[in-house]
Structure formats: C-alpha cells, structure tokens
Amino acid sequence: MRAVVVAGLVLAGCATAMSDAPATSWGKVGISMTDFLADAAFCAQASADVRAQREVLIQSRQTGGGSATPGSSEAAQASNDALLAAANDQRNAQVHADARARQAAHDQCLRDRGYTQFRLTAEQRTHLDAFPADSQERRNYLYQLGRDPSVLQTQAI
C-alpha cells in the first residue's frame, strides 16, 4: 500500500492554479506497473532525506524607532521580536531550500532510471480531475499516459 501512495506522489508534478491535476508527470515507454511502482518507491525513498546545504542568510533588519528608549523593556522586546522574525525567515527559507533539493534529487533519480518528464495537456488534466485524489483510477490514468510513446515524444519537457 505504501508503494502505491508513494507512486501517486511521484506521478504528481507541480499543481496548477486552475486544476488539482498535476501539470507534469513522468513516464517510461512500455514499463510494467510493477516496475513503475518499484521505481517510484525507490526514488521517493532515495530522496526523502535529502537536505539543501545550509544557507547562510544574512539579514539586515532595522526596527523602527518608535517611542522605545534604548535600554527600556520596550526596546528589548523590539530587538527580541526582530531576532525572532529573522530566525523564522531563515528557517522558512531553509525549509523551502530543502524541498527544492528533495525534488531535484527525486527528479534526477527518475531520469537516471530512464524516465522522461512530460507536460500534461489541458484535456488530460481535466480528465485527471474527474478521478478522486490518490485513487487507483488516477494512478492508472497517469501510468497509461506515461508508458505511451507518442505522449512521451510529443509532450516531453
């Protein structure tokens, strides 16, 4: 069951604002569903723990003067708030960098295994939207598209 869930995640590319369907997917001509699911699970596992190199984010932040007197509790609170905000910004930037690194590792794993990324047409995304998220029908539809040589040839990215 876990491999099926992972495969559903692997199939989905970036979401579009107009549709819940992914804008892209991955395929390999003639691959069996068993091999497809095994590769999906392998690449998902291989990229799960990837992290971006720690980014040094230097932020210069000015706290508005306001009426706080230097050395007062208001000035200390403003300084503390600025430090917390900067730390939060850095943490958020690192989370996004980690997500990009995991996606890049996942994509490279699929490429290394012979997969081709392809862009779904508007009609394909509409058809995909008819299926419930994480359903077997949805996975089967993407799988069938991804093993079709004409789809991979004409819609490859």
Topology (SSEs and partners):
Elements: H1 2-11, E1 24-27, H2 33-47, H3 73-112, E2 116-119, H4 122-129, H5 136-146, H6 149-155
Antiparallel strand pairs: 1-2
Helix pairs in contact: 1-2, 1-5, 2-3
Tell me about this structure.
By secondary structure, this protein is mainly alpha-helical. It has six helices and two strands; from the N terminus they run H-E-H-H-E-H-H-H. It has helices at 2-11, 33-47, 73-112, 122-129, 136-146, 149-155; strands at residues 24-27, 116-119. The protein has a two-stranded antiparallel ribbon with strand order 1-2. It starts with a helix and ends with a helix. 17% of the residues are buried.
The number of E-state strands comes to: 2
Helix content: 55-70%
Looking at how many chains there are and whether they match, the oligomeric state comes to: single chain
The span between the termini is 30 Å
Helix and strand element order: HEHHEHHH
Secondary-structure class: mainly alpha
The major pleated sheet works out as: 2 strands, antiparallel
Domains, number: 1
Average predicted local confidence, pLDDT: 80
